[in-house]
Amino acid sequence: MNKDAFRILSAIYPDDINFLDEKDDFRFLASVLLSAQTTDKRVNEVTPVLFARYGSVEELACADTEKLEEILHPLGFYHAKARNLKALAQKINALGYIPDTIDELVKLPGVGRKTANCYIGHILGCGAVIVDTHFSRVAQRLGYTNETDPGKIEVDIRREFDEDELFRLSMVLNLHGRTCCHARKPECQSCPVKAYCSSW
């Protein structure tokens, strides 16, 4: 597998790539949970309101569900998100800590593999493959995977890239998908890695 495209993009994009504003471990995990089926911009608008109202895991664990739903309403799917967020806070409050492995993280309410990988990469600084629509699209076009199932994509990427490359790869390909390699109208003419792209 040719990794030149990744190296070119990695040199172009910022060293520190973040889409969500929250840096605290629990608040970040909660933000990723809330980001499903909505934009990061919208999440970044809602989380300051949420955490101004509920400043700790304990407070959120005891939150009134209807009041949570009012705050989360702009994100869509607010009934499920309020329920999952409160259950997540209750579980972490009971545990007294946030797990530090993917296998344990995905046992938490509302936490899937993508959310767990986001936490592992951003908060713990470990190898993580964050498979979302942007990452999947760019990885497929660059020939890093032929799979469409997120789990199988992650397996392909982990097999072909070193552990210390995984999180950087996740963020770089995600950002490239957002800024250049769009789903419907990719900016191929200005793409710095078009020579490696199967769509070109």
Q: What's the quaternary structure here?
A: single chain
Output the radius of gyration: 18 Å
- Number of helical regions: 11
Low-confidence stretches: none
Query: Span between N and C termini?
Result: 18 Å
Beta strands, count: 0
The pLDDT mean sits at 97
Walkthrough of the structure:
Helix 2 runs antiparallel to helix 8, helix 5 packs across helix 6 and helix 9 crosses helix 11. Helices cover 57% and strands 0% of the residues. The chain starts with a helix and ends in a 21-residue tail after the last helix. The mean pLDDT is 97. It is elongated and about 55 Å long. The chain has 200 residues and is an all-alpha fold. It is built from eleven helices and no strands.
Summarize this structure as a short list of keywords or feature phrases.
200 residues
Quick rundown:
This protein is an all-alpha fold and 200 residues long. 57% of the residues lie in helices and 0% in strands.
